[in-house]
User: Fold this.
Amino acid sequence: MARILIIDDAKFMRITLSNILKKANHEIVGEGETGKEAIRLYGELNPDLVTMDITMPEMSGLEAVKEIKKDYPNAKVIMCSAMGQQKMVVEAIEAGAKDFIVKPFDEGRVMEAVNRVLS
Assistant:
């Protein structure tokens, strides 16, 4: 069971991910809507894993991953992106993300990514 932080500007997406992860007995320790919140919450909560949307207001997921990795090099982040954002996904991996999942979420693919990153 992992402690997971969910960052996405769409509440519906946070709820969807939360439900998938809770079903697999993971604990959701926090949620946020922006990259800035992601950085603050990571420092406060020290989660085992973060799922982060790429496209958000204020600060993108890409910028947030870079900031988190600067202070916490061992942070485990899975990026979430809509279809057709392959270039951004590559950038996210280069920035330090461990994996990515595509929206709309497929439960099997989400759990596959989470299990791979946590193991």
Q: What stands out?
A: The beta strands are 3-7, 27-32, 49-53, 77-82, 99-103. Residues 75 and 87 are 22 Å apart (CA to CA). The radius of gyration is 12 Å.
